[in-house]
Amino acid sequence: MLTTTGTSTMSVLDSIFPELPTYKGVWHAIYLEPIVGSGERVTVAVVAIGAASEFNVIQAIRSELLDCLYGAQSKNIKNMIDWLISSAKKHIIDNGEL
pTM value? Predict the structure, then answer.
């Protein structure tokens, strides 16, 4: 489709968006299956690893939501998530990947 100035719609759209970043990396979700064997998975953390091996692991679910979902057991779930995050960080440091 051409605009009234004779340029294509795509070239107009291309001009309003920035260039794609040159930075490369991968990411992974870390899941927790609250009821073993149920098939239900909750994303509790996210891992990002850059091309230069820099990385970060962050909790993906708010603590307040865990309090609502698990009540008196939320402290145990939070401890499991903390352990998963610590284990992922150690694994990446030791192996350079997840």
Answer: 0.75
Q: What is the pLDDT along the chain (98 residues), one digit of tens a residue?
A: 545 555 566 677 778 888 888 889 999 999 999 888 999 999 999 999 999 889 999 999 999 999 999 999 999 999 999 999 999 999 999 998 87
Query: Tokens in use for 21?
Result: 């970043």
C-alpha torsion angle, residues 91, 75, 31, 86 (rounded to 10):
-10
Identity of the amino acid at 88: A
Q: How far apart are CA 54 and CA 20, in angstroms?
A: 20
Sheet of strand 25-32: strand arrangement? 25-32, 42-50, 55-59
